[in-house]
Amino acid sequence: MDTEISLVELEQKTASLQREAAGGTAVERLESADVRARVEKMLGHGSIYVLADTEVEGFDIDPALPGMKEGVLLPLTFSRYFRVKDLVVDDFGLKQTLHFSGKPALVSLPWEGVKAVSSPTTGEVLDLTDDDDGDGPGKGAA
Q1: Contact, 79 vs 86, CB < 8 A?
Q2: Predicted local confidence at residue 100, as pLDDT
Q3: 65 Cα distance to chain centroid
Q4: CA-based nearest residue to 39, from 85, 75, 88, 83
Q5: d(Cα 50, Cα 78) in Å, to the nearest integer?
Q6: Which terminus of the chain is more solvent-facing, meaning fewer CB atoms within 10 Å of its CB: N or C?
Q7: What do you get for the CA distance between the two ends of the chain, in Å?
Q8: Are 3 and 79 in contact (CB under 8 A)?
Q9: How many CA atoms lie within 13 Å of 139's alpha carbon, on the beta-carbon side?
């Protein structure tokens, strides 16, 4: 099953995710220790949309790919059902070969770089941005 999503669609879905997070609807803040288990559960229902911080240490992607910009939050889609079935969810974070304008690229995203996760299947949204005192999820160990 080919489920590639265009960058425009990802940007639209990310904007929707950000609106939901700002409005507080269907958003849950989690402790870092729970993030991996919740993401794996969401992946069990299908694809997930991830808002990735491209400046976090350990984030790895070819900067020459179409749509890559420095210093931005990048919308990405991860799934166990993509054509290339190499998704890894581990203590580091998420790793998978994704396609950008038809070009495959291995993406490595540490948990510290995951700012929000959304499941289009379940409607669940996880807000992993730092809370007001600066020591919220994303700063702690997974």
Answers
A1: no
A2: 87
A3: 18
A4: 88
A5: 7
A6: N
A7: 32
A8: yes
A9: 8
Sheet with 88-89, side-by-side order of all strands: 88-89, 93-100, 103-110
pLDDT tens by residue, 53-75: 988 999 998 888 877 777 778 89
Phi-psi region of 57 (alpha: psi -120 to 50; beta: other; left: phi over 0): beta
Q: Is 45 within the bounds of a domain?
A: yes
**Residues 110, 92, 141, CA angle at the centre, nearest 5°?**
85
How many whole angstroms separate alpha carbon 24 and alpha carbon 102?
A: 35
pLDDT tens for each residue of 96-105: 999 888 889 9
- For residue 87, give the CATH number of its domain: 2.30.30.220
The separation between CA 18 and the C-alpha centre of its own chain, rounded to angstroms, equals 12
Two structure tokens written together for 49 = 């949309």
**SS3 of residue 19 by DSSP:** helix
CB 118 within 8 A of CB 26: no
Q: What single-letter DSSP state applies at residue 60?
A: B
Number of folded domains that form the chain? 1
Does 17 fall in a domain?
yes
Q: Which residues constitute the domain of residue 123?
A: 7-127
Phi and psi angles of residue 7, each rounded to the nearest 5 degrees, phi first: -60, -35
